[in-house]
Specification:
Blueprint lengths: L6 H6 L16 E3 L2 E3 L5 H12 L7 H8 L1 H28 L6 H44 L5 H15 L5 H30 L14 H15 L5 H6 L7 H27 L15 H33 L9 H24 L3 H29 L5 H34 L12
Protein name: Amino acid transporter, AAAP family
Membrane topology: Multi-pass membrane protein
Pfam families: Aa_trans
Length: 440
């Protein structure tokens, strides 16, 4: 662990980072023997965040409200928005305090040594990996609904896996940020079409939801995990800032992106639950009445989820490559490309296998939201910030930090995980394995 009082001296020993904490970074510089090319602006980071977070999550909000009811569901949406903005700002401040860090794990090592580093990596990348099967399942369902709703889902999963492996051969966020812009446009089109179809379905709808859901405590807890899943994503903020020319501007991206997220989450969630009531499903596009609009909405949803998968997959695969074959991460020779292809093939293959034998979309989202997201989103940022600030931390910061640590970081993780596991057990006997459609 590097003591915080020695960090200034450490930064002076890295000439290429002289401007990292406050000013614009140089075009190219060396860090740990790796050539860095910072290029992102804060507004492009907004699209990265939206492309990374808003997708499968927003389509689960109506279902989450159905499990919690109007009162608890909307209150929880507001609470999560505020908490994630606060914790995101903490990560932003720590990245400026310790500009040489490149990943969330680097931050953990700076404040708690090797234990902190591995604690972050295990939780962060387990959470990141759980995102991928959700994205693959949602995108495969969307592609099937677009082409042939009666076909076998597993076929489209194999098709999607091949497409994803191809696009993940891009290794730098320089191109991924444009994928995110494209993905954000696609999800906006999906949402517009979904709202139009919901408005049509509302004419014949007789369901208006419940103030407090009667679905049971465990279902409500699992539904709250879907909301946390929808907001989670701050565990890659350090990586995004590492690609920025002016990391000090990242706060603009945090506030802008979360404001957009809250507006769309609330609007889509309220409308979907009001129209379909307790019968709403996840994703909301599957609840739409059959027709051309449903097919078009699913087509744009498919494109958006592909972009989200590539962003998460890139971050996960780069982390794996940095540990297994660091010298080939940015090596575009034949050997380097082959090494990268093997890594993307293995991770995508594992995601495919997980989906084939564990096709519980809502439960996977909830498990990620209740088990890992509170740790990376609530617990770690506050623990690390407390360590970094030390005696200079104000009493208000300590009070807020304690509430988030105890209530959300610890208590909710335990209770929420119990509720999700309960739902998994209940759903296990009712959900058929995907490969069985090949024999029907």
């Amino acid at each position: 662990m590097v003591p915080l009082e020695e960090q200034k001296e450490d930064r002076e020993n890295i000439p290429s980072l002289e401007l990292a904490s406050c000013d614009e970074l140089k075009e190219n510089y060396l860090l740990d023997g790796t050539l860095r090319r910072p290029h992102l602006s804060w507004w492009r980071c907004v699209f990265l965040i939206l492309g990374d977070i808003m997708g499968a999550g927003i389509l689960a909000i109506p279902y989450a409200l159905a499990t919690m009811g109007w009162l608890l569901g909307i209150l929880f949406l507001v609470l999560m928005c505020l908490v994630y903005v606060y914790c995101g700002i903490l990560l932003y401040r720590m990245r400026l305090m310790i500009p040489q860090i490149r990943t969330y794990g680097d931050l953990g090592e700076q404040v708690y040594g090797t234990i902190g580093r591995w604690a972050v990596y295990i939780v962060q990348y387990s959470n990141l990996f759980l995102f991928l099967p959700v994205y693959l399942l949602v995108s495969s369902k969307a592609l099937r609904e677009t082409v042939n709703p009666d076909s076998c889902l597993i076929i489209w999963m194999f098709v999607n896996s091949g497409i994803l492996i191809f696009f993940m051969q891009t290794r730098t966020l320089r191109f991924i940020s444009w994928y995110s812009l494209f993905g954000t446009i696609c999800i906006c089109v999906t949402l517009v079409i979904t709202v139009i179809q919901e408005a049509k379905d509302a004419i014949s709808s007789t369901s208006h939801g419940q103030l407090i859901s009667s679905g049971g405590l465990e279902r409500g807890i699992a539904g709250s995990g879907d909301i946390i899943f929808a907001y989670s994503g701050i565990f890659v903020f350090i990586e995004f800032m590492d690609e920025m020319r002016k990391p000090k501007d990242f706060w603009k991206a945090i506030y802008t992106a979360n404001g957009i997220l809250f507006f769309f989450y609330t609007f889509v969630g309220v409308l979907g639950y009001a129209v379909y009531g307790k019968s709403v499903v996840n994703p909301i596009t599957s609840a739409l009445s059959a027709g051309l609009l449903k097919r078009v909405a699913n087509a744009f949803l498919w494109l958006h989820i592909l972009a989200a998968f590539v962003i998460h997959g890139l971050i996960l695969n780069r982390a794996i490559a940095l540990r297994l074959c660091k010298h080939y991460v940015d090596d575009f020779s034949i050997i380097g490309m082959l090494a990268w292809f093997c890594i993307t093939l293995c991770t995508t293959g594992l995601v495919l296998l997980l989906n084939i034998f564990f096709p519980y979309l809502s439960d996977v989202e909830s498990l990620s939201g209740t088990l890992f997201s509170p740790l990376t989103g609530f617990l770690f940022p506050n623990l690390f910030y407390w360590k970094c600030k030390g005696s200079t931390m104000s009493w208000k910061e300590k009070m807020v930090g304690c509430v988030i640590l105890v209530v959300l970081g610890i208590a909710y993780t335990v209770i929420g995980t119990y509720g999700t596991i309960y739902s998994i057990v209940q759903d296990a006997s009712r959900t058929p394995l995907l490969y069985k459609c090949l024999y029907s």
